[in-house]
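Posting for a labmate who doesn't have an account.
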Amino acid sequence: MASCLISSISEELNCSICLELLTNPMSIACGHNFYQECILKHIQMSSGNSFPCPECQTVSELKNLWPNQQLSKIAQSFKLVQPPLRRSLNQRKLRQNSMVNEITLDLKTAGPGIILSIDRKTMRGSDVWKKLHCDLEQSDQCSPVLATQSFKSGRHYWEVIVGNSSAWDVGLCENSVKKKKRGGGLVSPCSSTGYWLLSLRQSNYLVCTIPSTRIPLTEKLYKVGIFLDYEMGDIVFYDVDRRCHIYIFTSSFLEPLIPIFSIDLNSKNENILSIDPVSDEAEETSFREEPSL
């Protein structure tokens, strides 16, 4: 898959300190490379003529620091052909250089067809609701739930397990969407209306552009990573299991952003969506009991 290959190359050609492309790299004794300004600042913080490698902590000496001209040429060439990404696509480095957020679902925004777990980390469709509305012929009707957290600065990262759900949406929306949600009415989700979403509909992965952009993934998504760089205007979606990026939105944010999630309410199968990596006890997630019919 092309995006996975680009992600792998980008990982090797980006400085692990600033996440920028190594167009002016310096090499040290252990073989790791860093952007010149980054490694010089790192050395200034160390005492004497030796310093630990920021990547592997191996001690190097100033005499073993040299510019890597060959790597610089490779990075410059890659810069001409890579997609317009301004940040590393490597999940591990994103965790190191971002605030890994504990996201919880806002009960006040959950519709009547949604059941939330006690810890507000998992959502699923209500069996009672489906039985009461079994005469509806609408397909892929998704009900959104917002997070209790919002972001107005910084870099943030979280993961969502979409599992075997047949239809879902994950991403971010503007804070004003809360008022739109309460006021009702249909709004086409796209960046101009305050939505940045990755979705699954009828076995197709889509992003909410106008018209919708189909993402030609060859394998099923089970866990999606979401990275927000508020100042740079980047929202990036990742396939966590395969460690490669899916899509990047680039926008100018004018208000706080809120994580948003939704699942299909009319699916015959049980649709469950969980926030953050799920442990082996995931299947034991406790739900509040529904009233029986």
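Reply:
Got it, the structure tokens are right above this. The CA atoms of residues 79 and 88 lie 13 Å apart.
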